[in-house]
């Protein structure tokens, strides 16, 4: 499985909400951060979005936006508008003048992701992914967003499964549309995938996370000297190569533990450790608690029996 697909699989998006957002005249609203992913597709007109205290960004008709972990933001008809506090709603939203045809329309939505790995995985993604209509990539996103809205409004059999799959497709489409040319994105997974040499390394790590990777071996795969590779990888991805490998191993372990894995020996082998003891030590150092304690905290089912682990 390639890196983008694996990240989306571990995020396991679910519980979508989708609604129309319209406006007329002069208006501005401000939302507090809520940490879960949000998306929007501008259907008509334009608006201005500002994340936190950042500069406003114009969203025009046909633009698609994904916020992997929605921060505090403001939305307004024009830059510099006074913004009133607003709260997220599951219902259709109207901003500005209450009468008359809206001059702005947007399809907005939000969904939830699996909490066990949310912080680690979202740290590899940019704060905002903006796909402009002019780039010619938003037609597929509009189709997916429309299907999500249809499923949200209906109560048909299989609704939850279909929504989860549509959200997965939307995330993959959005992320691969943003795999950049060198230097276009801040450090993270997408920036690394934008460089062919580093992309080869990242795909190799994800293809065999249990392999005994070394910096020298990965540098050879990238076709670079050890020092050049280590520096370039760290600059592009935001962490050292072996640190990325350890983070990904722990991400896979967190996911398995949250789903009720039964054998710690087997889990240790799967993520590249010689023994359950070595894995438990590494897990405690990285996560701050033992695998047993993590499983108790995050498993939604019966607490799993983790074999071959000393008491927490």
From TrEMBL:
- Source taxon at top rank: Bacteria
Any idea where the HTH araC/xylS-type domain is? 199-297
Q: Which UniProt keywords apply?
A: DNA-binding, Transcription, Transcription regulation
Pfam families in the record: Cupin_6, HTH_18
InterPro entries according to UniProt: AraC_lig, AraC_XylS_family_regulators, Homeodomain-like_sf, HTH_AraC, HTH_AraC-typ_CS
**Alphabetical list of PANTHER family matching this protein:** ARAC FAMILY TRANSCRIPTIONAL REGULATOR (PTHR46796:SF7), HTH-TYPE TRANSCRIPTIONAL ACTIVATOR RHAS-RELATED (PTHR46796)
Report what the protein is called: AraC family transcriptional regulator
């Amino acid at each position: 499985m390639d890196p983008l697909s694996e990240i989306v699989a571990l995020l396991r998006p679910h519980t979508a909400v989708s609604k129309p957002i319209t406006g007329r005249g002069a208006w501005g609203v401000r939302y507090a951060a809520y940490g879960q992913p949000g998306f929007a597709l501008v259907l008509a007109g334009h608006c201005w979005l500002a994340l936190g205290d950042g500069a406003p960004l114009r969203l025009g008709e046909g633009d698609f936006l994904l916020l992997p972990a929605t921060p505090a933001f403001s939305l307004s008809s024009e830059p510099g508008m006074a913004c009133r506090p607003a709260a997220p709603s599951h219902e259709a939203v109207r901003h500005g003048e209450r009468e008359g045809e809206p001059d702005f329309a947007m399809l907005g939505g939000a969904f939830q992701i699996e909490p066990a790995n949310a912080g680690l995985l979202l740290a590899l993604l940019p704060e905002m992914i903006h796909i402009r209509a002019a780039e010619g990539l938003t037609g597929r996103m509009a189709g997916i967003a429309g299907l999500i809205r249809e499923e949200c409004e209906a109560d048909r059999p299989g609704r939850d499964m279909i929504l989860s799959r549509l959200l997965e497709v939307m995330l993959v489409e959005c992320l691969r549309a943003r795999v950049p040319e060198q230097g276009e994105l801040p450090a993270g997974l997408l920036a690394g995938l934008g460089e062919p040499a580093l992309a080869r390394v990242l795909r190799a790590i994800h293809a065999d996370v249990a392999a005994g990777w070394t910096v020298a071996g990965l540098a050879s795969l990238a076709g670079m000297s050890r020092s050049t590779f280590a520096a370039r990888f760290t600059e592009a991805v935001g962490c050292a190569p072996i640190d990325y490998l350890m983070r990904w191993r722990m991400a896979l372990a967190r996911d398995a533990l949250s789903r009720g894995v039964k054998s710690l020996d087997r889990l240790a082998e799967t993520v590249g450790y010689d023994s359950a003891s070595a894995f438990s030590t590494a897990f405690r150092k990285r996560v701050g608690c033992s695998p047993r304690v993590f499983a108790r905290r995050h498993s939604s089912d019966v607490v799993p029996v983790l074999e071959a682990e000393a008491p927490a």
